[in-house]
Amino acid sequence: MEEKKFTEKESLELISQMIQATRKNLAKDQGNYFIIYGYTTAILSIIIYTSLCMTHAPWWWAGWFLMFLPVIILAFKEKRNTPTVVTYTDSMVNKVWQVVGTLFSLTVLVMLALSFIVGRCDFTLMLPLCLLYASIGTAITGLVIREKCLLYLPFVGFVFAIYMLMSYTINNSATILWNLYFGLSFVVMMIIPGHILNNKSEKL
């Protein structure tokens, strides 16, 4: 059977259709990944910050592990509702976030191992590191689907992450304001782009 050869124009149209299909898949329904994950993180940041201000109990920092809960729930839901059409671009975006998720998991495991070795547990560096991973993952997603808000807004989170790391290096400690910086970053790089994607999906 002879393979069909695409002209340059047909190839560009096919790529454009794949990107449009991916945009629809990313932005369809009101509860997409960016919005749910963004709001969960923003709410958690306020709760943890307020709790730390009122009680000064350091174990409240552990509340950030709840930010992984939406990922588990959405992953389980996604398995039950497999999309009828999965484009190459869809697959690429999914793999980007699989890598980001792996980085999250590896960071936790390495920190646990080091805490066991040195006999001291300190997970405060998880905030800037997670912010770096999420910023890079969101920016790459924006690059793949050619969505400027997803490409450029994550730089806000990236800047906050670098600031937090430098602050920790200089002061050798974290401040409870990190929680608000983290939440604000997710508002800018996930909630705002998520709503923009939803609005655009209605016009596609």
Protein described:
This protein has 204 residues and is mainly α. It is 75% helix and 0% strand. It is built from eight helices and no strands. The radius of gyration is 19 Å and the shape is elongated.
Helix content: over 70%
Query: Which structural class fits the helix and strand makeup?
Result: mainly alpha
Mean pLDDT: 82
State the major sheet: none
Termini gap: 36 Å
When the domains are counted, the total is 1
Give the helices and strands as they follow along the chain.
Answer: HHHHHHHH
Helical segment count: 8
The count of strands amounts to 0
The proportion of residues in beta strands is: under 5%
Uncertain stretches of 5 or more adjacent residues: none
Shape: elongated
Radius of gyration from the alpha-carbon trace, in angstroms: 19 Å
Can you give me a brief rundown of this structure?
The chain has 204 residues and is an all-alpha fold. It has one domain (21-201).
Q: Which properties best describe this structure?
A:
204 residues, mainly alpha, transmembrane helix, membrane, transmembrane
SSE arrangement:
Blueprint: H1 8-27, H2 33-55, H3 69-80, H4 88-118, H5 126-145, H6 148-152, H7 154-171, H8 177-201
Helix pairs in contact: 1-8, 2-8, 4-5, 5-7, 5-8, 7-8
Keywords: Membrane, Transmembrane, Transmembrane helix
Transmembrane segments: 33-52, 58-76, 96-119, 125-145, 150-170, 176-197
